[in-house]
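haha ok so turns out i had the wrong file open the whole time. this is the CORRECT one, sorry everyone. sequence first:
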Amino acid sequence: MNRLPQYNGHNNYVWDDYKITKKSLQLSPIEKPDMSPFLVHMTGKDQILDILKSGSYDDYGLIRASIPSQSKSKWYKREVVCFTESVLHSIDSFRYIAHNRFQSNLFYGIGFSKDKMAIRDGIRPALYMDKKTIGKLASLDKYLQDLTENFTEENGMLKELLNELIPFITPVFQDVERQGYTWEREWRYYNANTTGFEFFYKDIAIICCPPSEKPAIEKQLGSYSRNIRFVSTWGEYNEVVDFMKSRQHNFTSGMYANTKKEQLSLRKQDVNRAKNQLEAYREYAESLANQITILEEHISNYEKELEDIDVALKEEAVRQEKIEKENADRQAILDSKCDDCGNDFEPQQRRTKYSKGLDFDRGLQPYVCRVCALRLGMNID
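then structure:
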């Protein structure tokens, strides 16, 4: 397999056969396995159709803005729309990492082209910051809001800058148990003059929903649904396979050619580059495949351990049941006899709790009769 060789000071010519020509917002897992060309808004079953029906016109949708759930500060009042740039096959990890995502059944989603979204005003990556820095920005924001005298032009510029930054600020939370939300790879949309993010149906690139929900969504989208990729689970989507089927790659060199020979030479370079990128991805895929045997061994070990634990749990349940029965039988005896003199209690006879002895240490409750309690100097119940 051909990988990009090490530079030796003389082999610059190989660079064109390997370089990635896509713009950064178009990068996919083919060129870089942790990149996605999509921004996806995750949602639930009850919300996805409501989003598609809530736009100003028949072919518009609206994702309503809200204060982010992870915002813990009372001063943060900005309502935003959240997206993730996580690679699609890993998006379902949201439900595994955050319990509220599991409860909301967030395996529904609407995805848009990242490079098309990025040119819209108000859509930017979230700004992950530590709490100390956020606190300083909050104090500065409050200071400018309360400032009435000597409000300079510079103050106005600073306030405008804060108004543009603050909606995108989110805590890193690196000092809490789960270490925050950076795993979300969040982008946000903010516009103080709108109720949320409104979009054309034609801008939708991908929708994730169970097969049973697809007909209702297709009906709502009408003819636009023909240009949207539907997947039943995020793990089903494979951009590498799509590339190989569609042959849509960033082949642009030919536009600069003048002669047929130049066109063919540049086309060869484009195809060679695409082949090399797929070979590099194949190496990545093979590295994952090489782990299968090890994974299967570990999974088998865990399955055996689970079987052993189940056996131990059953044995422990039997042992615990035996102990509980023995304790119940012993407590019945303690309820009927004085722990000091051993005499049976008469019906309705007053008893006093005795907080000593081996039975008490085992968690049982012995009793003594009135006579023994007086003799032992105990307070009679």
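The first strand starts at residue 38 and ends at 43.
again sry for the mixup
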